[in-house]
Amino acid sequence: MPRSKQYEQPVQNEESALQNHGQIGVPYSSGHNEAFQSNVMRGIAATILLIAIGSTAYHFIEGWSWIDSIYFSSTTLTTVGFGDMHPTHDVSKIFTVFFVFAGVSVVFYTITKLGAYSVEQRLRPPWVPRLLKADKHELLKR
Length: 142
Prior knowledge:
The protein has one domain: Helix Hairpins, CATH 1.10.287.70. Helices cover 72% and strands 0% of the residues. It contains seven helices and no strands. The chain has helices spanning 3-8, 14-19, 30-61, 66-77, 90-123, 128-133, 136-141.
């Protein structure tokens, strides 16, 4: 069935709506939600880990204070880059090249997952969480 036709059909009950992928084309299941939250948490953890690695590297290579190192790592990963600080040693410049490629990818992945999770929660019909908690036998009794 073409995707557009799927959404033109009226929903007869909660079960058929659940089977027809809901409003945004994503199957509603508690496993899907848990996997989504897990991806968000992994992205946040990876971002924090990268900031810690970058801060440690800049602290020891450049000799910056911990605050300056954390500040520079954060502004670099978020691509803000105020320009008030920059690496001066060749080793830290090379590190920064790899740090930017790895870090920006992880940060944007995390931001994308957070945004998608937020949109999914807003578009989910209010009856879906109740239906997901229901026992399969309760659905069959209806």
